[in-house]
Amino acid sequence: MAFVWAVQAQAAEVTWQKDIKPIFDKNCLGCHGKDSPEHGEFQKDKKGFTEKGIGMRMDSYIHLISYVGWPYTGALIRRLDDGTSKADKKPGNMYEHLGVTDEERKANLTTFKAWVGSWNVKRWSDITKEELNAIKAKY
Ligand code: HEC
Question: How far does the centroid of ligand 1 lie from the alpha carbon of residue 55, in Å?
Fold first, then answer.
């Protein structure tokens, strides 16, 4: 019953808890975990933290969505994109961390895209209310 299966697959909503957290914990947590600085703290010494391979904290739902909606609108999208959604067509610099193989990176990007719901690289200054409304990013 392929039809029934397709309907069920569509109904299975992508959530942070079920789908994103496992990917994040495996591929991102090492540099964006609970001991990493808050975004504002990171900003005080960007160069220093980056040189040490320490990113900003993103390990909770609330932390991560601040890189999707506000205040760091589209940051997650710009960094994880494989290049297809960016004007310069270059992959974001966190794309490589999405997996060990190209296949894994592509699969995990697909999951992130499904979670965000509206894969938009725009910043707060350019994004429209309608575009923000299209973001899903469910807990
Ligand atoms: C080896 C360490 C490392 C790993 C692994 C890593 N990151 Fe990062 N990430 C950094 C560092 C350091 C920065 C800050 C320097 C920069 O902007 O490139 C950063 C920056 C970012 C930013 C930009 C935030 C902003 O304020 O603009 C996002 C979004 C991000 N990472 C997401 C991720 C995601 C999602 C993963 C997992 C798929 C990941 N990173 C894996 C080290 C890492």
Answer: 5
Q: Cα dist. 31→16, 51, 54 in Å?
A: 19, 12, 5
Alpha-carbon distance values, 19 to 31, 44, 125 (Å): 19, 32, 30
Residue 4 has pLDDT above 80, yes or no: no
Ligand 1 atom showing the smallest separation from residue 49 Cα: 12
pLDDT higher than threshold 90 for residue 129: yes
Listed residue (38, 118, 46) closest to 77, CA to CA: 118
Q: Which residues line ligand 1 (CB under 6 A)?
A: 27-28, 30-32, 39, 50, 53-56, 67, 72, 75-76, 79-80, 93-94, 97-98
Report how far apart, in Å, the C-alpha atoms of 29 and of each of 36, 57, 59, 138 are.
9, 9, 7, 20
pLDDT tens for 99-119 read 999 999 999 999 999 999 999
Give pLDDT tens digits for 33-57: 999 999 999 999 999 999 999 999 9
* CA of 129 relative to ligand 1 center, distance in Å: 27
CB atoms within 10 A of CB 43: 11
